[in-house]
Amino acid sequence: MNSLLEVKELKKKLGGFHIEHMNFTLEEGCITGLIGVNGSGKTTTIKTLLGLYLKDGGTITFHGKEIDTNEGMVKNRIGVVLDEGYFYEELTLKEMKSVIAPAYSNWDELAFINYINRFNLKLEQKIADLSKGMRMKFAIALALSHHADLLIMDEPTSGLDPLIRNELMEILLEFMQEEGKSVFFSTHITSDLDKVADILILIDNGKILLNESKDELLDRHALVKGDHSLLNEYTRELFISLQETPFGFEGITDKKEILCEQMSNVVVERPSIENVMLAYVGGDRHDF
Ligand SMILES: Nc1ncnc2c1ncn2[C@@H]1O[C@H](COP(=O)(O)OP(=O)(O)OP(=O)(O)O)[C@@H](O)[C@H]1O
């Protein structure tokens, strides 16, 4: 696999919040999910990658070239969908497209019209009259209409209903059909990633806690349920997180084999991405 985007020792300070020593690579042909709870630094990471926030240190390369000094190439080859959607409210979709399209040397009008029709959007409609889901679809239509290699999206599914979220995941999979494509998207709705993500990066308080293939991550961990009587000083240590209720315990472990040897009569299940994420970031302390 070839690396498309490489982040080395990225540093960004924003008020009292820090990203430091951040390193990761986005590979061609992979959908990478950036996950973390509210305030963990997902938007800051993405805005710093895109140069919307000036970085305080480190390097970001795209196709081996520094992003800072190759703005034109980067703009043409990266499609961006941001949470806020930087649109002029008083313009129609057609007018807004006319502002944006000339910025791309390989703008594909036919592809754009196809997405507009597919998403049931109307070119004469004003941006101000679009619902949140329609805005997101318009942003995606724009991002996909200039033959980008990499699609970067910040919380594209937040506030969307399950039907539209599912449709968006289908579009991402379609986009990935072409060789050399890659998607990087942040979300705190981890269920969206179950179906589509190849790689997961878990960030908390500006630091990467996990960066590995989704399948390996879920194989490596287990959700274990059992009776209180099985817990003792030694077995408790086998869990990354452990919750006790009046009916028993439930915990996440990355020591599946040892745990099964030490604890009989437990139920061992494959965890969800959310189970694993909350185990590492102390889910009970966070508000979802
Ligand atoms: N302009 C700013 N000035 C100072 N601090 C900021 C600024 N923007 C964000 N922060 C802080 O940086 C931290 C990370 O915020 P960020 O928006 O990157 O998190 P996030 O993971 O995207 O959260 P969410 O899921 O809520 O969108 C938070 O503590 C936030 O309060």
UniProtKB/TrEMBL annotation:
InterPro entries, sorted: AAA+_ATPase, ABC_transporter-like_ATP-bd, ABC_transporter-like_CS, ABC_Transporter_VariousFunc, P-loop_NTPase
Keyword Mitochondrion on entry: no
Residue span(s) of domain ABC transporter: 5-230
Cell membrane keyword on record: no
Pfam families named in the record: ABC_tran (PF00005)
SMART domains: AAA
Domain of life: Bacteria
GO molecular function, one term: ATP binding
Assigned keywords, A-Z: ATP-binding, Nucleotide-binding, Transport
Protein name in UniProt: ABC transporter ATP-binding protein
Organism from which the protein derives: Mesobacillus zeae
Lineage per the UniProt record: Bacteria, Bacillati, Bacillota, Bacilli, Bacillales
